Amino acid sequence: MTAPDSNYETMAEMTIRNSIIENNSARNGGAILNDGNLFIEKTTFKNNLAFTAGAISNGGYVSLKDVSMENNIAVTGAAFINGGDAKIEDSFIIKNIAIGEKRGMNGEHDVGGAVGNSDNLLLKNTSFINNSSPFGSAIYNLGIDIPKLKYLCKIKIEDCRFENNSSHISGEIHNEIGEISIDDSKFKNETAKRGSVIYNDSYLTITSCDFKDLKKIVHNFNLMTIHSSNFESNQSDSAVIENDGEIGILSIEKGKIANNISDYTTVYNHGKDCNITGTIFENNHSKKENCHNICNRSNMVLKEIILKDKTVSIFNEGILTAEKKYKNFIFSVGKVFYLGMENEFNFSYLDELIHSNISDTISFDEDISLLSDEFDFYEGGIELDRDNMVIDGKGKTIDASGRSRIFLVTGNNITLKNIIFKNGHAFDNYFMSNNEGGAIKVYKGLDLKIENCKFIDNISESKGGAINNKGHLTISNGLFESNKSNEGGAIYNHQKLSIIDTCFKGNEGHIGGAIYNKEDLEIVSTKFLKNIVKESLFKARFIPILQLEDESFGGAIFNKKRMVIKQSSFKKNMGLDDTDGAWGGAIRTIGDEEVTIIQTEFIGNYLKDSNFGGAISSYKTPNLIDCTFSDNYPNDLN
To answer: Which range has the worst mean pLDDT, 60-64, 223-227, 575-579?
Structure first.
């Protein structure tokens, strides 16, 4: 149908199906002006022109289903203006252009939009693609600026797609007056020259939406809630989400904000209030230091958020209320109030105790446990990054609940004493800094002393069930019991390890049931009892490093370099790898470095289904001085 300089006007009821309506023009409603009941299905509106509503102007009721509105042009409402009740579903709104107009005495409002609304509009399963306008390239909610009526102007958006819409000023959706809800919708590749994808000056809710590959996304001046939505891989020359204005109130709940890049920050609050709850922040970056995730300049509350990156990423110049566990991620020149967790002796409590205490000696009087909401914060353990520090547990237990390491040692000259380390777990699929060492990992070249401590039921899926040492470690008067790892059931030593008056009992590994020594090991007055090597505990993750692949080595100790053992005992240590065989019921040593064993007894150590040394299997003959060997058997020959 082509009717230049005219349109259809309906005041009763009309149904249009399977039609093409193109090249029409009028001042209001380039193709159709409706004040009655209008039903349109499987119809295309194309190349229509008007001052207001390029294709359809509605003042009654209209239902559009499987409709395409393409290349229509108007000053405001390029494709559709609604002043009544309207429903658009299963439709496409493509390449419509709203030129825009100035409103107000000073021309301060520039109104546009492919779809404009001032009453009640439902949009369902509809795509907005390549529309352009100065303000609200896809949708502009004009509303009625009368207090009793303004929130009756509603737009409900369900399961819609917004892509490649462009705006000079305020992006794809502009809510000036009224209420908008957006559910289960996707936003991608918006090209606003400035401003935001969603501009809200009234009331707006966003639920279960995805925002990807966009510029600045949200700019709120009034009341907005964002629930269960993802903001990913966006870039902004200011902030990705901004709360602004004297009455701006923003809530972000149970979402994910990841891999965004901004000049200033990811979430910027300088409105009235901002609350963020249960939201994940991961791998966001900004040019402003300490501001990668959040900048607060007014009032903000943070609860149950997850900060995946262990860096200072929250900048506060206002009033911030947060849980204590976020303290190490906050840089503040304003006021911070921490929500009390006085009765929760968890990892957050211990972390704050260590880092807020100016004394060189820190002690705690309660058992410490990792809580379920702390898993993502402490998967690599509490970082001990202070030099010259003593931590005294007074015999109390730190329990990692089988979900994380306990301590990551990056500070020098630290002493740990009177602590029970229990249920630490280093997962091999974590970041490199977070794997190895089920209870403790020591960085290269650092000095650590461990005195009168117990390590029980700790696991590493790669190296060092209890401890992975790359520094200078001294252990005295300790107990290592029931720890497990592929390499070094209790300890994996990369550098220098001294052990005095300690007991290793019931530890398990594939190479080194108790200890894997790669560099320099001295042992004095220490007992090794019932430690075991057997088939790989985490076989899928184990990568053989020796020529004899998959075989088990050293029921108690596997040694590659210098080792000295004095006044110690090895009893009932075992090699049980009945698949590929085991070497050394108590000790397996390889390499050309000197091995010296003095006044040490080997009793009841044995191998199952193997003939390679019931007590010791050595590549080079060790120096044995005043040692006792009794009832050690290869091949289970009891």
So the answer is: 575-579
Amino acid identity, position 143: G
Mean pLDDT along residues 568-591: 83
On whether the CB atoms of residues 198 and 204 are closer than 8 A, the answer is yes
- Residues 161 and 399: their CA atoms lie apart, in Å, by 48
Cα angle 454, 459, 461 (rounded to 5 degrees) comes to 150
pLDDT (tens digit per residue) in 92-119: 999 999 887 655 434 444 466 789 898 9
In angstroms, rounded to a whole number, what is the distance separating the alpha carbons of residues 428 and 300? 37
pLDDT band at 120, cuts 50/70/90?
very high
Residue 278: C-alpha distances to residues 216, 337, 499, 552 (Å) = 22, 19, 45, 46
CA distance 10 to 152: 25
**pLDDT, averaged across the chain:** 87
d(CA 330, CA 480): 37
pTM of the model: 0.56
Q: Which pairing describes strands 109-111 and 101-103: parallel, antiparallel, or unpaired?
A: antiparallel
Place of tokens 């209008």: 38
Which sequence spans correspond to the domains of the chain?
10-153, 342-495, 528-536+549-637
Are 73 and 54 a contacting pair, CB within 8 Å?
A: yes
Provide the sign of the torsion angle of the four alpha carbons 27, 29, 30, 34, taken in this order. Answer: negative
| 3-class DSSP state of 180 | strand
Nearest one of 207, 265, 206, 208 to 234, comparing CA atoms: 265
Looking at 435-587, list the stretches that DSSP marks H as alpha helix, in order from N- to C-terminal side.
none
C-alpha–C-alpha distance, residues 331 and 313, integer Å: 8
Neighbouring residues of 512: CB distance < 8 A, sequence distance ≥ 6: 487, 488, 489, 492, 533, 553, 554, 556, 557, 558, 588
**Is residue 506 pLDDT above 70, yes or no?**
yes
Contact 481, 505 (CB under 8 A): yes
Q: Give SS3 for 325.
A: helix
One-letter amino acid identity for 302? Answer: L
Give the CA radius of gyration of the chain: 35
